[in-house]
Amino acid sequence: MRQRTIVCPVIQNDGEYLLCKMASDRGVFPGQWALPGGGIEPGETIETALRREIMEELGDKLLITDIKPWTFRDDVRKKTYPDGTTEDIYMIYLIFDCVSTNRVITYNEEFQDVMWVSPEKIKYMDLNEATSITFAQKGML
């Protein structure tokens, strides 16, 4: 089984959190709302990977001013690829609290939509399991 170390930013701006609706035909949580993030590439530091993933997935205009390590966990997930094939992956999540100074986002093909959500509304979202665990640990669910 392949192993991936995932950097996961919990991005907050003016009291709301950024959620991304995953593409319905790929990824670990197709069609559900999730936090952004992705795998660390060989030779990258953790912060370099985090900033790269934010830029790739959310564009280069979203300004992140504060990054603090928050928690970590692991699990096994089934990843679906655009061609319909699947793979079980052992995932190690490194989760960071991040603050953005703006909300300028240009998301890539991994997402169908993005939304800034207040803590009160997060519990009503169709969150994937990993994101639900994260917000439960933060006391919001």
UniProtKB/TrEMBL annotation:
InterPro entries recorded: Nudix_hydrolase, NUDIX_hydrolase-like_dom_sf, NUDIX_hydrolase_CS, NUDIX_hydrolase_dom
GO molecular function: hydrolase activity
Residues covered by the Nudix hydrolase domain: 1-141
Cofactor: Mg(2+)
Enzyme Commission identifier(s): 3.6.1.-
Signal peptide extent: none
UniProt keywords, alphabetically: Hydrolase
Broad class of enzyme this protein falls into: hydrolase
Family: Belongs to the Nudix hydrolase family.
Xref: PANTHER family: GDP-MANNOSE MANNOSYL HYDROLASE, MUTT_NUDIX FAMILY PROTEIN
Protein name: Nucleoside triphosphatase NudI
Species whose genome carries this gene: Phytobacter massiliensis
Lineage, highest ranks first: Bacteria, Pseudomonadati, Pseudomonadota, Gammaproteobacteria, Enterobacterales
Gene: nudI
